[in-house]
Amino acid sequence: MKRTLAVIFAGLLSATPLAAQSVDDFPSKPMTYIIPFNAGGESDISARFQQAEWEAVTGQQVVIQYQPGAGGAQAWSQLNSLPGDGYTIMGINMPHTVLQPLAGSAGYKTEDLTPVNYFHYTPNAIFVTKDSEFKTLADLVDYAKANPGLVTFAGSGSNSANNLAAVQFNELADINTTYVPFSGTGPSITAILGGQTTAGFNYATSGVSQGDAMRMLAVASDERLPAFPDVPTFKELGYDIVGGAYRGVAVPSLTPEPIRQKISDIVTEINHRPDFIEKMESAGFVLTDIGYDKMDDFVAARIKEYTAGAKALGIIK
Amino acid sequence: MDIIGYLVDALTPLNLVLALAGVVLGTIIGALPGLSATMAVAVLVPFTFTMDPAAGLIALGAIYTGAIYGGAFAAILVNTPGTPSAIATTFDGFPMAKRGDGGLAISLATISSVVGGIVGAVALLVLAPPLAKVALAFGPTEYFWLAMFGLTLIAALSVGNTVKGLIGACLGLVLSMIGVAVVGGDVRYTMGMQRFLAGIDLTSAIIGLYCVPVILDLVANADPHLKPSETGGLRFREGTRIALKRKFNVIRSSVIGTIIGVLPGAGGSIAGLVSYSEARRTSENPESFGKGNPDGVIATESANNATVGGGFIPTLVLGIPGTPPDAIILGALLVQGIKIGPTLFTTDGNIVYTFIWGLLIATLLMLPVGLLIGRYAYSTIVKVPKAVLAPTVALLTIIGSFAIHSNVDDAQLMVGLGILSWILNRYGFQPSPIVLGLVLGSIAEQGFVQTYLIGNASGRMTEMFFMRPISIGIICAALLTLGFPFWADWKAKRRRQLGQIAEPIADDGTEITPEHKQRDLPEIGFAILFIILGIGIYLGASGMSALGSVFPKTIAAVLIAFSALLIAMNLRRPAGGSFKLANLNAGAMRRISLGVVLLAWVFLMPVIGFLVTSMIAFVAIMIVADYDRPPAKTWAIWIVSGLLICTGFWWLMANVLLLRMPAGLLI
Fold first, then answer.
1. CA of A196: which chain B residue's CA is closest?
2. Architecture of domain A2-17+30-120+245-313 in CATH?
3. Calpha distance A121→A272 (Å, rounded)
4. Under an 8 A CB cutoff, do A32 and B658 touch?
5. In this predicted model, what pLDDT tens digit does every residue of B59-69 receive, in sequence order?
6. Looking at the domain that runs over A123-219, which CATH code has it been given?
């Protein structure tokens, strides 16, 4: 009932010329940007980079809030109950928003969410410590072939981008390794640095924050990363693995079309600012340009890819 | 030396003002349960973008250390940890306050926090790179054993009542399993409810388990909440004298806190619990712990503030945040364009060292700031009439549990758990073991499954679990803690046999119920309920992945075993104990009314709106809690001040902390 009223009310609002005009002024007050994860992760850091540019682009500030829980599902399941005036936006991630509904009661469906712009991704990468005996990916694969099951990969979470990549890699390289899930990037990097596991499947961003302490053996991007010109891609080495975690901005479903487009434009504009590009790329993020107009195709392609991945993970039969 | 040179950089007027403002703000936020350092730091990060990096860091670090310290106020004065780090402060702090030593407890907490903070910051200043290696030496196995070590504290906390303590721990572990599992990814025990997906929030659970029973007891009789102190004030001199005498405890706890702070997976609550347990083990009269022994407050408070400096060590040296506030500060550094990692201390040494000096200065400022705020808070809590105190504390619990995620579900859970906790406590199941289980559950489970996976892959299972040097050390410490109460018990018996009569211990405010001599029917009833719960959990685990079901099945089995043991113990006792029916006297009626008001408050809040519901509930609780029957004029003043308090907090949350407030039909 309340929902219906809200829909009618929002409809009335957007029908008035006053509201139509407000798209041009948008935003006219500070915006709230909800991150569905804890502080300090890749989602937070990239949003903080955006925050530093936000005022210059929109004339208004953006406030970052954290609503962690259930790997993001806690926040995403509430996204559509938030006001659809455009002033509340939320970070959104792939493959999370595809895999979670497939895995079971996540409280939302992939198609319920309204992403307006996916602005970057962090490619998966294999890491070992700097003292590791494995200098190249071939060394690691040879060792894994000679010792089935012995190689352990630390990664962030179960049914996550890292987990998916580890399963994919097992399949493509025809090896048998063990994936050990940790509660986040921080703990899994700690395990790699401490030599608790043989190697790690993490995001390329960790290669920057750890400097020389870790060696990246391969990265799952299309082309080599500017920050790591010497690290080969999986593709170059003959494994067709491209991907990682995609991050974007979503809005509640009540948000009117012009505002959705406007928010997408804001994110795209920030993506083109030199300072932002410099910070993101040197931190190991790969910028993407998937605005609101390209969103449907992008999401459809990802759903197809991750549904296949979910079968490999054993989430769905 | 260079390092000293940076002290001068830290001493600019701007930095000093930032450090002072940060400590004041942090202490106040920390003292309010639910408003956390993480929240304060997150809101303030954007303001530091335009500041000089070192100045911004000093402000954030000062808020952080102030908040960890401020948590002690709520722990001592209302038995509710203001931050999870202060869990163990409640064990002795509140009993001290109840018997009239609240001021002394605050002084001790202040002195210990300052010393602990200094030890942590000095370690960060001079020992950061070598200590960062400790963080790396701690693998999943060590975290598993550390959690086990924490759980052994239950044996000490529930002397004479160990089985119930262990059952409580199992209940806490069960609560920790709810939600999406990190290892395995299963959705566990949410009963199909979306609100449980993210699991039981620790902070709102702590507020409910500790604080709601306090409010329920507060309204049940006309006695003052805390016994007024005979000498008044904070008794700072006496506190200094005690702290000097216990200097060994202060230093040991600070060192434990620093080292545990370095471990990214542990944090302030575990540091407090471990040093509490160590203080108890080495004490000459361990029986008095939990009944208001100053050593308990000293141990916890020096340890949890030491984790601040300790936590910055992996953050700054390895780029791995030790705690959530560290993670936000790490993000702020990255936005400033500072590269975290092994080279930070050389490339950006000026910023790092200026910041560390700033943190030290902020820690020292905690002494005057803390004593001022503490004196005010203490005298307010003692003087405020019950009819205003009870609703204010109730309002704070609801704000606190709501504010964590701007989520009404958390507030509802808090009230539900709180009422349950009061009932359980009445039958000898205390909240502390439940909280320990909840805090340590996920650490224990993740450590266990990860160790299992790694051990299984390499075929070295036994070696992984039992042969790693640090693990052996932790296991030994755990065994010592576990065995100690039994040994002390044996020694006491022996002493009695020798005809020496032990000195009676002052046990004002003790909450440990001795074992019953006769068969206790409600106890058997609870045990049967827990067995049914255990069976339900075991059966519920059958559909889960192998990784996700190990822990639930184990805990279910243990819960069933202990509950069966409790029944067996009762059956062995003579039957026919006086079966006390719940006595519906005036106190009980007030308790029930308060429970109803609290429940109505959290369930009507999303329908009617936060502000209006809170105002109505506030006045309702005033009526429930009133014993003085004052004239109408006083009532008018009370009600107006109540409405002002509600509006003030609502405004603070909506406009300063920028929380999304539930707005229903009204506001």
1. B139
2. 3-Layer(aba) Sandwich (3.40)
3. 15
4. yes
5. 999 999 999 99
6. 3.40.190.10
